[in-house]
Amino acid sequence: MLLVAHTRASGCSQPEENRQFSRKGGLEATRCTVYPFAMIILTVLVALQKGKVTEEELLKQKVELLKRLVSKGFSRGKIEALMGFLKLYVRFGKRENDVKFDEAIELLLNKPKETMGIVEFVLERERRLGEKRGLAKGEKKGVEAQKLHFVNTLLAETSFDDAKIASLADVSIETVQKLRSQGK
């Protein structure tokens, strides 16, 4: 498959009309293109050869792509959008490489550190969802504990049969029987 890209003459040895990049051209071919998305696509194609490219090489290629986008004068917003796409679709296996890539973005774009990136946003959202699930579990356990306490109180202070206590406390008859046997 060949990707045809119109390019600038900046550092390219081929005449503009003859410039075609093969998938094997990888990131080296991106030095000629003026289209930022073409750079991303070529990097993604390289990443598809995951077994052949080490994590360190992938990090190097991503940072090199970032440098090329900055050097070609693309706007910060466009670069950030492209880097967000790249972070989501060409992932590292090691978290430390994500951190290194984020640091390179911050350094090259003079991006303030308190700005939350896409990966951080997703992680923060998942953390909040986890907290909500944990709170729901805790509330459920608290309700169950209250029911058991109520059953124990009814067992100690009334002469109700097990069915009546189960009905009042909204628990199973087996639960009442188990608590009754533990209390003796």
Return the average pLDDT rounded to an integer: 76
Indicate the percent of residues in helices.
Answer: 55-70%
- Give the helix/strand class: mainly alpha
Compute the number of helices: 7
Overall geometry comes to rod-shaped
What is the CA–CA distance across the termini? 80 Å
Overview of this structure, please?
The chain has helices at residues 36-47, 55-71, 76-89, 95-109, 118-157, 162-169, 173-183; strands spanning 2-4, 20-22. It has 184 residues and is mostly helical. It has a two-stranded antiparallel sheet. The longest helix is centred in the last third of the chain and has 40 residues, at 118-157. The radius of gyration is 30 Å and the shape is rod-shaped. Residues 1-11 and 13-27 have low confidence and may be disordered.
Question: What is the structure about, briefly put?
Answer:
The chain is mainly alpha-helical and 184 residues long. Helices cover 64% and strands 3% of the residues. Strands 1-2 form a two-stranded antiparallel sheet.
List keywords for this structure.
2 strands; disordered N terminus; mainly alpha; two-stranded antiparallel ribbon; 7 helices; 184 residues
List the helices and strands and how they pair.
Layout: E1 2-4, E2 20-22, H1 36-47, H2 55-71, H3 76-89, H4 95-109, H5 118-157, H6 162-169, H7 173-183
Antiparallel strand pairs: 1-2
Helix pairs in contact: 1-2, 1-3, 2-3, 2-4, 5-7, 6-7
